[in-house]
Amino acid sequence: MALKERIGTVVSDKMDKTVVVAVINRYPHPTYKKIVSRTTRYKAHDPENTCVLGDRVKIRETRPLSAHKRWAIEEILNKTSQAKEVKK
Q1: Integer Cα distance of 72 and 61 in angstroms
Q2: Which of 10, 31, 34, 77 is the most buried (most CB within 10 A)?
Q3: Is the pTM here over 0.70, yes or no?
Q4: CATH number of 5-78
């Protein structure tokens, strides 16, 4: 069975070794044929905490790593220039 892959944007990086990736799925409405956008948020494993807010990433399906985390960061496609702030 092939592993699923998704491309999305990091919308939260506040957790340790975890990021939230928003994936936008666009499809035509079955009756009205208008293009509808649906956003799904996935929690993905980021072991080195390399992703920051706004990064475009590719995630892949993996074994369950926690109660809600079943995806892992495969690669960072577009890195944002936003520097991560250090809390004091």
Answers
A1: 6
A2: 10
A3: yes
A4: 2.40.50.140
